[in-house]
Amino acid sequence: MKLICLLFFTAFACLTHAGGIPSSWSKAKQIVRDKVYFDHKITKYCGCSYEPKGVSGGVIDTTSCGYNGSGMKYQNAINVLDWEHVVPASLTPAKEMNCWVNGSRSICERTSKEAKAIIFDLHNLVPSIGQTNRIRSNSRYGIIEGEEQRLGLCDFEWSKGITEPSERIRGELARVWLYMSYRHNVVMPEGERLMFLRWSLSDPPDEWEYTRNARIKELQGNSNIFIDMFKY
């Protein structure tokens, strides 16, 4: 029955228009850090704590989660807080807009309201260790058979353009992808959609995800219906 409900929402989801779009990428990161995650300063993939620093950044405490990025690339970003797009901006329709095709992402962020609505969508932003964000780049999620953990205790694996997140966060990440697909028409192969539906069912929202969703709704004007449906 739950799978039928999810498929129903997948086919007929109708999402309300966003209320407020941040004016810049810097502002979007500042808002999500200080008004959404202010009391939940934990990175998404690895569960590391961080302390805010500067306008929108922060410093990662790698000892809090057993993270070890030594020997991997992007050494200078091990202790850097990034705000990562769960759905990479380059995989959204913003990449196909004239401002990006004939210019760049930064030009879209300055000049296009439609691009801003996609790139600055707060539902799609999560705190991440800079190193893992750069390692992932714009890869999609999936299952990697037999891949070893290479970042200490962090359950974060990558291989051949695929990133495999920990089971404990797959449902949350899946609901972001499903939301972005219907909110912003992000292209999603059917096999990937079914994988995300399975992830969402096997890992329902926890209290923090509900809280995050409610805060973003208050700030942005819309919630993630793929989270809301679990309440009913």
From TrEMBL:
Keywords: Endonuclease, Hydrolase, Nuclease, Signal
GO terms for MF: endonuclease activity; hydrolase activity
Signal peptide, first to last residue: 1-18
Annotated InterPro entries: Endonuclease-I, His-Me_finger_sf
Family affiliation: Belongs to the EndA/NucM nuclease family.
PANTHER family: ENDONUCLEASE-1 (PTHR33607:SF2)
Official protein name in the record: Endonuclease
Organism: Pseudoalteromonas espejiana
Gene name tied to this protein: endA
